[in-house]
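=== RUN LOG ===
request id: a7f3
mode: sequence -> structure
chains: 1
length: 107
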Amino acid sequence: MAIELTEAAADRLRSFSKGKPEEVTFRIGLTRSGCAGWSYLLEKAETISPQDRLFECRGVRLVVDSESLPLLDGLLLDYVRKPFAEGFAFHNPKAKSECGCGQSFSA
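=== RESULT ===
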């Protein structure tokens, strides 16, 4: 099981670490919401439980809870800049369909 980051996503996450990337862990998870059923969660991890799975990719530490992991296995997180918008893009091989905004999916 794995979660991967593009270099652009890793750079953007490191920019939130205030110069101490080794001290910051980011949580990737899922919540039941959105127009397709599951919405992505990306935030600084305040706590890490024994049931969480820890990943490191491109020098960034990531944690995923055990309930979200089966639906996030193989996820590639990218950071995309377009002329009038920028943000994280979740490329999830477990997603059967996505909503129009790309922030929620069904599995």
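=== NOTES ===
The CA atoms of residues 8 and 47 lie 25 Å apart.
The chain has two helices and nine strands.
=== END ===
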